[in-house]
Write a structure and sequence with these properties.
- It is a single chain.
- By secondary structure, the chain is of the alpha/beta class.
- Among the domains are: 185 residues, Isoleucyl-tRNA Synthetase, domain 2; 102 residues, Isoleucyl-tRNA Synthetase, Domain 1 (Orthogonal Bundle); 61 residues, Ubiquitin-like (UB roll), CATH 3.10.20.
- Helix content is 35%, strand content 17%.
- The protein is built from 34 helices and 36 strands.
- Strands 12, 13, 14, 15, 16, 17 and 20 form a seven-stranded mixed beta sheet that branches. A four-stranded parallel beta sheet has the order 2-1-25-26, with helices on both faces.
- Helix 5 packs across helix 6.
- The longest helix has 19 residues.
- It is globular.
- The termini are far apart.
- The N terminus is likely disordered.
- It binds one RNA strand through helix 9, strand 13, strand 17, helix 13 and strand 28.
Length: 982
RNA sequence: GCCGAUGUGGCGAAAUGGCAGACGCAACGGACUUAAAAUCCGUUUGAGAGAAAUCUCAGUGCCGGUUCGAGUCCGGCCAUCGGCACCA
């Protein structure tokens, strides 16, 4: 045994943890020694490096799996135990997938631009780069100590010029594109034939009312304003028109909704995005106002046109100036002043009572030809629709309130179903008082009136979105500078050769207060040439996180934002890597050990076979990476297409899913028959083509913004031919937040924050990881419990002691209980039930129940002789959860019972054998009238007739059936017999 | 107000419409120990009956329904949490 300690000592001659182990109170097992040992061994051996196509160690036979965490903002406070919850889940998946023979991309990086670092710099004068570097180091230490199997060679930081060079490059791609309304796709601006390309660019400059936060000296996106205050700091925010960079995300609104359908995301998150985009179908209707001005309104209820008894314009609507009569000019001016003085908060807060002013003008209702008054009111928003509405008080709540407040006429035009009063009814019914459409049900009435309006040239069907264009500029220092200059009042892109454009050095990061960004202080930097100056704004924090998952595929590439081949491999799974020919017969080493169940299940090799034999476009078409847009490969085409355009074999036909040439994954139909490949996906989702990141785990707080922005950028890059999938994240899972022990949200304020490193110091990283997963379902919110950690730690110690025993001197050595013996039949049953349960639970991300099953295993083997093979199986199953402990025990076992190769990470994942799960006898529940009365053991082969006879003859059953008539006997195979009596 | 999620022992939780509470924590009892810790073995939803093994009844937020049988499915409420909130 001595050599064991000598070996450890030689590994860590100066390790403080080792010496502390000797002095401190005895640990349940020496995690403080073995965890650092394995962590440095993994580093040395580059064990978790995922080779890219082209690298010498790249094995084209392995299928790829891309599992991603939402990368953190490295704050000054470090991680608390809530952060690693999702990271632990993905790490288990990553390690599991590697054991199943996948080439796994599992990276980590830093979303390091952002306001807190800049705020800190303003307070302390310390450059944000310094604090950022410090914070990253702290985060990384914490993550490494937890034993995550990240490929650290792929680490990226958004503030690194080698990274943001490409963020800026992507901005230029967006700047140099427009969305062709015919194809609904992004195209190079050169394909635009109109007069003014600047009016259609996907990145454009506009004078827009923005959320100006004087305290922060910057503009904020709508999403960063919460209840009229800044999300960061909680400072007041006011509306103010400013010149800003905008990204035309609204051009993609339709696709961003439609293509959600293809994704394995939680239904709730999809709904959130849908609601955020807020699609509503309706019509634009033109009203003619006095002086010949047209007022166009948007309505989702054109069928109520006859009921429009007044109009309302948004106070900011420019038409107000032209329409207001002299008599009303003062009242209107007063009202507008009053409205603009209100912050957004006040405006919504005081929304209970409707306010407004008549502007003196009238318009004509195009249907009824009635003369109706025009008002302004702040309940009509300039930013939605046309900034004007027709007031239909009878069938719209807000209009009704307004009409009642100002005594405007109310005309019922929809007859509701019986029992409802027409006035105030907003549902569907039958049109009344509407000559053109009287008697028609609402949907038909809408169609008819739109047709009529169109014939008259007075309106048309339209769709509106709540989604606004993305306000993309910030008046900050610590962000990516725009690669743009201004010359003669016009913007221009700088040449790509000048990227990266690095922010100038500054001593003072404070906002200038005038709305001019801090970059204005760097006079020399700002002066681009004699005639041109640089753009002073910087990009928002979202920019860097919009594409980091792409950079991870090829982080060192200096010639492209991501190499084509790397992108195709990791995001789509390129066809060349999926052919059967390329697949060696036995990709996983050591698959032939007899007792360790069967070799790697066939899924690895059967997938490519199925793909290459499919006659359809899936296997034959190259990825659409050419710059020429291929409509058939767009998600839009997929969504709108009816029948599949190309026959791709029986699987696709029966599924009804259209082939998806842009996505080169095998379709789920083809994946399905693969043995051992358990599909956690829903049936509907299984019909969707797959592509992008295979599993993306993060918090719900990014449900809308980050995910929507990333999808938008991805689609632009896809349309321009730079990417091979139209969606970035195929499968998304949200982890629930972890509360403090007091049940409150973890925060400094409550003093309930727990540092992972403190937990690890007491219980070890493996216990920490297992407890994070054992707490409950991943998606659920749950409170932390230190005694819970202790329980899990006890479980791991029991595993340790199955293999190890202490000698007289208090040294751990291989336990004599471990032997090469056949497990008993009962033990075999536990072993194989555990393989089955753990495998299925990992696939379903149900880690808590997987751990529970392994606890059952350990309970069953505690106190008995330990059959070597059973033990090895347990270590493999537990390895993704507790990698250090299992690696150490595996190695120790291998010294006494050598196998080749001996690394636990080179073993095949165990496969359960059904024969060990088959029972001779089965317990049957006997019920009378649905209540359990007895349980009996019967031979598995018992027939229904036999079961019925046994049940009816059973004493306990007869006690409850005596004197009654048996009406029915229900038999559920292998489960129960239910006797129904009256 | 609208949308979504969740409600099960003292606590975290588990349960393809078929034995409610697996597994873990806490508590209690026992073994080992001079003792403690650690470890190992038990008990642990409530009420009632019994000397006891056991047995009966009730029980998954509330009310109702479907079913031989409901934590699970359906309808109606209540509570907590999250999101949206004058989006025409």
């Amino acid at each position: 045994m001595d050599f064991f300690w000598n070996f450890l000592l030689s590994c860590f001659p100066d390790s403080p943890t080792f010496s502390s182990f000797m002095s401190e109170r005895r640990k349940p097992y020496p995690f403080d020694v073995i965890e650092p040992k394995w962590q440095s061994l993994w580093d040395e051996r580059r064990l978790f490096h995922a080779p890219n196509p082209g690298e010498p160690s790249f094995d084209p036979a392995l299928p790829k799996y891309y599992v991603l965490d939402m990368f953190p903002y490295p704050s000054g406070t470090g991680l608390h135990v809530g952060h690693p919850e999702g990271y632990t889940a993905t790490d288990i998946i990553a390690r599991y997938k590697r054991l199943r023979g996948f080439n796994v991309l599992h990276p980590m990086g830093w979303d390091a631009f952002g306001l807190p670092a800049e705020q800190y710099a303003i307070r302390t004068g310390q450059h944000p780069e310094i604090t950022t570097r410090k914070n990253i180091a702290r985060f990384k230490t914490q993550l490494k100590r937890i034993g995550f199997s990240y490929d650290w060679e792929r680490e990226i930081t958004t503030t690194d010029p080698a990274y943001f060079r490409w963020t800026q490059w992507i901005f230029l791609q967006i700047y140099n594109s427009w969305c062709n309304p015919e194809t609904r796709r992004a195209e190079p601006i050169s394909s635009y034939t109109g007069e003014d390309p600047d009016s259609v660019r996907l990145a454009y400059v506009a004078e827009v009312p923005v959320n100006w936060c004087p305290e922060l000296g910057t503009v904020l996106a709508n999403e960063e304003v919460i209840d009229g205050k800044s999300e960061v700091g909680g400072f007041p925010v006011v509306r103010r028109p400013m010149r800003q960079w905008m990204l035309r995300i609204t051009a993609f609104a339709e696709r961003l909704i439609d293509e959600l359908e293809l994704l394995d995301w939680p239904a709730g998150i999809k709904l959130l995005q849908q609601n955020w985009i807020g699609k509503s179908e309706g019509a634009e209707v033109q009203f003619v106002a006095g002086g010949g001005y047209d007022i166009i309104v948007f309505t989702t209820r054109p069928d109520t046109l006859y009921g429009a008894t007044y109009m309302v314009l948004a106070p900011e609507n420019p038409l107000v100036d032209r329409l207001t009569t002299d008599a009303q000019r003062k009242a209107v001016a007063d009202y507008r002043a009053q409205v603009s003085a209100k912050s957004d908060l006040e405006r919504t807060d005081l929304a209970k009572e409707k306010t407004g002013v008549f502007i003196g003008a009238y318009a004509t209702n195009p249907a009824s030809n009635e003369r109706i008054p025009i008002w302004i009111a702040d309940y009509v928003l300039m930013g939605y629709g046309t900034g004007a509405i027709m007031g239909v008080p009878a069938h719209d709540e807000r209009d009704l309130e307004f009409a009642r407040a100002f005594a405007l006429p109310i005309l019922d035009v929809v007859q509701p179903p019986e029992g409802e009063t027409p006035t105030g009814y907003t549902g569907e019914g039958v049109s009344i008082n509407s000559p053109l459409i009287d008697g028609l049900p609402t949907p038909e009435a809408k169609r008819r009136i739109i047709t009529w309006l169109a014939e008259q040239g007075l309106g048309r069907r339209t769709i509106n979105y709540k989604l606004r264009d993305w306000l993309f500029s910030r008046q900050r220092y610590w962000g990516e500078p725009f690669p743009v200059i201004w010359r003669d009042g016009k913007h221009e892109a700088i040449p790509e050769s000048e990227l990266p454009l690095v922010p100038p050095p500054l001593d003072d990061f404070k906002p200038t207060g005038s709305g001019e960004p801090p970059l204005a202080r760097a006079r020399d930097w700002v002066r681009y040439s004699e005639e041109a100056t640089r753009e002073l704004n910087t990009m928002p924090q979202w920019a860097g996180s919009c594409w980091y998952y792409l950079r991870f595929c090829d982080p060192g590439n200096s010639g492209r934002f991501v190499g084509k081949e790397a992108e195709r491999y990791w995001m789509a799974g390129a066809p060349g890597f999926w052919t059967a020919a390329a697949m060696p017969p036995d990709t996983v080493p050591a698959a032939s050990k007899p007792a360790l169940v069967s070799p790697e299940p066939a899924h690895v090799s059967s997938e490519p076979t199925l793909v290459s034999s499919a006659p359809g476009p899936v296997s034959s078409r190259p990825a659409p990476v050419s710059s020429e847009p291929a409509p058939a490969s767009s998600g839009a085409a997929l969504v709108s297409s009816g029948p599949a355009p190309v026959s791709s074999g029986p699987a696709s036909i029966s599924s009804g899913a259209a082939p998806f040439p842009g996505n080169l994954h095998p379709s789920p139909q083809e994946r399905h028959p693969i043995p051992g490949d358990l599909h956690p996906f829903s049936e509907a989702a299984a019909l969707c083509p797959r592509g992008g990141v295979d599993l993306y785990v993060g918090g719900t707080e990014h449900a809308v913004l980050h995910l929507l922005y990333a999808r938008f950028w991805h689609k632009v890059l896809f349309d321009l031919g730079h990417l091979s999938t139209s969606e970035p994240f195929q499968r998304l899972v949200n982890q629930g937040i972890i509360l403090g022990e007091d049940g409150r949200k973890m925060s400094k304020r409550w003093g309930n924050v727990i540092d992972p490193l403190d937990v690890i110091a007491d219980y070890g990283a493996d216990a920490f990881r297992c407890y994070e997963m054992f707490m409950g379902p991943l998606e659920q919110m749950k409170p932390w419990s230190m005694t819970g950690v202790e329980g899990v730690s006890r479980f791991l110690a029991r595993v340790w002691r199955l293999v190890m025993a202490e000698n007289q001197a208090g040294e751990w050595m291989l336990s004599p209980a471990v032997a090469e013996v056949e497990p008993t039949r009962a033990q075999q049953k536990v072993v194989h039930a555990t393989i089955k349960k753990v495998t299925g639970d990992i696939e379903a991300l149900s880690f808590n129940t997987a751990i529970a099953q392994m606890m059952i295993f350990v309970n069953a083997f505690t106190g008995s002789a330990i059959p070597l093979q059973a033990m090895r199986t347990l270590l493999l199953l537990l390895n993704p959860f507790a990698p250090h402990l299992t690696s150490e025990l595996w190695e120790t076992l291998g010294r006494r019972f050598p196998i080749t190769p001996n690394e636990i990470t080179s073993q095949p994942w165990p496969q359960e054998q059904a024969e060990f799960l088959i029972e001779d006898e089965v317990e049957i529940v006997l019920q009378v009238n649905g209540k359990v009365r007895d349980r009996i053991l019967v031979p598995i082969a018992a027939s229904n007739a036999e079961l019925e006879a046994v049940a009816l003859a059973n004493d306990r059953v007869r006690a409850f059936t005596a004197g009654k008539t048996v009406r029915k006997v229900i038999i559920v195979e292998k489960k129960l017999v239910s006797v129904v009596v009256n």
